[in-house]
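From the shared-data thread, chain only:
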Amino acid sequence: MCESLSYRQFIYVTSRMDYLSSHINNHACAICVEKGLQLEIPARAQVIRVLMDELTRLASHLLWWGALAMDLGAFTPFFYSFREREMINEIMEDTCGARLTMNYIVPGGLMMDLHPDFQRKVKEFLRLFRSKIHKYDELVTGNIIFKAALKM
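Structure, as tokens:
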């Protein structure tokens, strides 16, 4: 598909390759183009890219963890995971206008700067997430049903 598109057009396809990793896919494609064109990316844009990648990774892992729990018969972890994931989705929507297939990272930098509430909302998310991690561990990791279902 990319053979008929320019690099500016193809970057949008990368967000749909794995919709749980759209920022990460956009980032990888942008880096390839930038290396090819020998573009120097501003330090601020580089940091923001990594922050968005990491938030994307956390959202993806939350969905995985919640879906695994539900597949094994536990619905509570699924609801918890979606609660925290929703906070990340709101940050994404504020920042780039989308919640799933984001096209924020582009060759040369970013589509726009961070939303003014970005830092506050990320800190709120991290506070909540840290306070819940022990509960996730308690619900899943040590659960005898999970251990039995996942044992080979």
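The CA atoms of residues 55 and 88 lie 7 Å apart.
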